[in-house]
Amino acid sequence: MKPAHWILGAVLATFLTGIADAEQACELNEVTFEEGTEGWIGTSGSTGSTELEESGGNPGHHLHTVFNDFGITFLNTSNPTYIQDLSAHDQVTIEVNLKVEAIDFFGTPATRPWLVEIRDYDGVPPGQAWVSVWYLFEWVGAGDWRTFEVTISDPSSSELPPGWGGSGAEDPVTYEPMLPANRTFADVLAGADAIAFTTFLPGWAFGFTDFDVRFDNVRFSACSTPECPGDLNADGRVDGEDLTRLLAAWGACAGDCSEDLGGNGVVDGPDLGILLGYWGSCPG
Fold it and tell me: Which tens digit of pLDDT belongs to each residue from 226-247?
């Protein structure tokens, strides 16, 4: 028979080899336009308008833009869901539904770029309206409802992720839009003042175009890992009291279970590993 200390060591080794990351807490905000625009506005002017309509969306209420111009934009500068330090999160996902009834260039069906742009209005170089980072979904034309989505897997990155571009400056050789030399991807996300879904692709110019477009279901998810996930009683330390609480909850979780640090529905070895990994005083 193995001695008790050997058995305990083997059990702990089993726990620790199964250490998982702490479960991310995700906040999902969805604007369906059933309760109003929640800060979203669309292009309007002398050549057309954007209206909140009760039917024809995906489903029901939505924004409907019928406009003639170089491009169109759906913009939000007031909703705190988007106007925050986005770089503080571990992951951000942006999603929207779009239906293009028609895009015509002098009577001929056409396509136009469709992108999401995060804008910062502070510290803007002379001659620029804003500094931004943007992601081109694709060029869109007439068709049925479609979903467009992008996930920022590391909002704290200083480099532009694949598929992302920047604006606020111009490459002196290629004349392509770029971020100013003193700005980074994370820096723009940290100072987010607006979010836009638009057909205005930085570096491109278009002639007058007829747009008939429907816009619905803006979904925004921001996920973050707790700074000190093992501190179950929130006293600023991960210690014996937290360990006792976790062990008392051992096994399958019933409903919302804060001891399930890994988020797999069971309080088990990986959760113990997470707790032990944060043992001691919490950072900050």
Answer: 778 888 888 889 999 999 999 9
